[in-house]
Amino acid sequence: xxxxxxxxxxxxxxxxxxxxxxxxxxxxxxxxxxxxxxxxxxxxxxxxxxxxxxxxxxxxxxxxxxxxxxxxxxxxxxxxxxxxxxxxxxxxxxxxxxxxxxxxxxxxxxxxxxxxxxxxxxxxxxxxxxxxxxxxxxxxxxxxxxxxxxxxxxxxxxxxxxxxxxxxxxxxxxxxxxxxxxxxxxxxxxxxxxxxxxxxxxxxxxxxxxxxxxxxxxxxxxxxxxxxxxxxxxxxxxxxxxxxxxxxxxxxxxxxxxxxxxxxxxxxxxxxxxxxxxxxxxxxxxxxxxxxxxxxxxxxxxxxxxxxxxxxxxxxxxxxxxxxxxxxxxxxxxxxxxxxxxxxxxxxxxxxxxxxxxxxxxxxxxxxxxxxxxxxxxxxxxxxxxxxxxxxxxxxxxxxxxxxxxxxxxxxxxxxxxxxxxxxxxxxxxxxxxxxxxxxxxxxxxxxxxxxxxxxxxxxxxxxxxxxxxxxxxxxxxxxxxxxxxxxxxxxxxxxxxxxxxxxxxxxxxxxxxxxxxxxxxxxxxxxxxxxxxxxxxxxxxxxxxxxxxxxxxxxxxxxxxxxxxxxxxxxxxxxxxxxxxxxxxxxxxxxxxxxxxxxxxxxxxxxxxxxxxxxxxxxxxxxxxxxxxxxxxxxx
Length: 637
Fold this sequence. Notes:
Layout: E1 19-20, E2 32-38, E3 50-55, E4 61-66, E5 71-77, E6 83-90, E7 102-107, E8 113-118, E9 123-129, E10 136-143, E11 155-160, E12 166-171, E13 176-182, E14 189-196, E15 208-213, E16 219-224, E17 229-235, E18 242-249, E19 261-266, E20 272-277, E21 290-295, E22 302-308, E23 329-331, E24 337-342, E25 347-353, E26 360-367, H1 368-371, E27 376-381, E28 388-392, E29 396-402, E30 407-408, E31 415-418, E32 424-427, E33 432-433, E34 441-445, E35 452-457, E36 460-465, E37 471-480, E38 486-496, E39 502-509, E40 517-524, E41 539-544, E42 550-554, E43 561-564, E44 567-571, E45 579-585, E46 590-598, E47 608-614, E48 621-625, E49 632-635
Parallel strand pairs: 31-38
Antiparallel strand pairs: 1-2, 2-29, 3-4, 4-5, 5-6, 7-8, 8-9, 9-10, 11-12, 12-13, 13-14, 15-16, 16-17, 17-18, 19-20, 20-21, 21-22, 23-24, 24-25, 25-26, 27-28, 28-29, 30-33, 32-36, 34-37, 35-36, 37-38, 39-40, 39-49, 40-46, 41-42, 41-47, 43-44, 44-45, 45-46, 47-48
């Protein structure tokens, strides 16, 4: 199956697979934002009835099953967690099968294969994944044909073991789990065996929907909606075969919170198991969201700890119009946060997890009317714990993420400004960066209005020196995003008088009448250090006949300047004559001018002149040669 793309392939769209990006480590410290991909968008397709969701191990791609579209949608994942829709593959595509009412989806740990469970095809389909593009190519199907030990009727959930050796599929209609051995090279599946409710002592598997493998690979857990239960299987690490161990049923032995259980997850440390259910008794605000169990890391046995209670927090002034039961459930890699989706009222709930006890504390909730979480279904967390992604049956993928503050990318350099300058610009774009790609607004402040005024327009700070004033002051520049998260940096502005450029050596070579004359001028000026910046300083250079010299003017803020930290070079525009290169070093207090392709044929043999002017039109220094020797004028003080 190759991805079928939309007309605007690669466009980042703001619409709901629900990619909810939430700050996993600093909930509330950075306000969450969201992005939504929606099947309602004409440029997107394949998301209607979004159910299953899986992230590739390399974090580059997100795969979503569109159960109403019989499709798998592929999106690229950007550095800020945002999704770019790439395209969808469909059950109706030539040669493709196993996507009719597709539900669960899983990516192998090596990122080479994707497996999808089909509710109506009674199957699990294999797709080969291109790790670079994320594209999927159909690789085959294992379908329940009523014989051979496969129990895939109403296939709903799929999981791959951490070692990549086994694949497990739970089937809602057959109340069963089927185990496959996986070929790491081809991805092909070979039947190991299956277990069904009421067969061989197995219980608690009625309408099995969710399945997960413990991080240590020793146990498999199943959430069964019809049995209101979570079921424990022991896994053979060599063969992948399963052995039924126990079923924990809602209302039995003090267990609660498992009503319509449909999703299950094990913490990374293996110490706790969390189960989410769809609803309890239907009374708004009175339904448990799921259950928390302690897990024996050796035997895999579960001990009930508590039901996940209805969400309530005094820190919020809304409760999503009442919360009724859970849906999908996920835990971040650090084990600090647990996320539960509640489809009845279309909300995402965030809980802080105590790593020692496993118990949960409600900290945050997000509702459809604020975040676009229409009929939210499953949820996953990125490996870095920064982003949470959920699917919605209304055909949406909503992305919430931390609104991270801007940062100082390159510290602002101190500047020396000449008091005669009309205005010295400072470009702020490269100095600050925002990892979320937010547009930034800039402000600047200082406490020396007697020295200079500041004007900020867009990303340009302009310094206007007060006439006749000299001195230094610190300027604080602040960058802020749309939600007013800020970062600041400080630069020192020093106002000085324009420095006199005094020539100390000049050499002029004349080749009469051929426009091949040249001149080289060296000199000194007061040392201004690495803060020296000549871009705001107008200058002129004149060479030749004192009455009518060849003159080169460099206006303030001319784009020909290049340099930093006090050392700068100016070159004349390409193709312009004469060719000019001016180098100035504020740290050494030296300059050099090289002029080539001059035409000085009209210059007299006597009183040849070189003039260097700065700070406007006044001539600061003039060199007058009084003799011509062998085609050259030379000046030494």
